[in-house]
Design goal:
This protein is of the alpha+beta class. The chain has helices at about 15-20, 45-50, 65-75, 90-95, and strands spanning about 5, 25-30, 35, 55, 80. The chain is about 25% helix and about 15% strand. The strands form two sheets. The chain has a three-stranded antiparallel sheet, covered by helices on one side. The protein has a two-stranded antiparallel sheet with strand order 1-4.
Length: about 110
């Protein structure tokens, strides 16, 4: 099983999760992070670190977020690894509680 980053991360890109990942499985895009399902070791450390609760075990991804399983797999093969924490996007706090952000995802 792997972990999956879901919609809450879009336009926030908090990277607290990156600091605790022992295998560097996070990949960084312009306004979103994904988890490489081939690298994730199911350690659960990232889940508690995410301030917007965007990370779920694959089996626990909410029904309306299931498409993010495929999005993580697709984009993790295209984006570069992120191995150090960075500042969140400048307007992250504004976007943190918003819903229906998929149209904002920059691939």
């Amino acid at each position: 099983m792997t972990y999956v980053v879901t919609e809450s991360c879009i336009r926030c890109k908090y990277t607290d999760c990156v600091d605790v990942c022992p295998v560097d499985c996070f990949r960084e895009g312009p306004n979103f992070l994904v988890i490489d399902p081939e690298e994730c070791i199911d350690c659960t450390l990232c889940v508690a670190e995410c301030p917007v609760e965007a990370i779920f075990a694959e089996d626990d991804v909410p029904a309306d977020q299931q498409h993010f399983i495929a999005i993580n797999a697709e984009l993790s093969s295209q984006w570069k690894p992120i191995v150090e924490r960075k500042e969140p996007l400048p307007d992250a706090e504004e976007w943190a509680a918003r819903k229906d952000k998929l149209s904002e995802l920059i691939k």
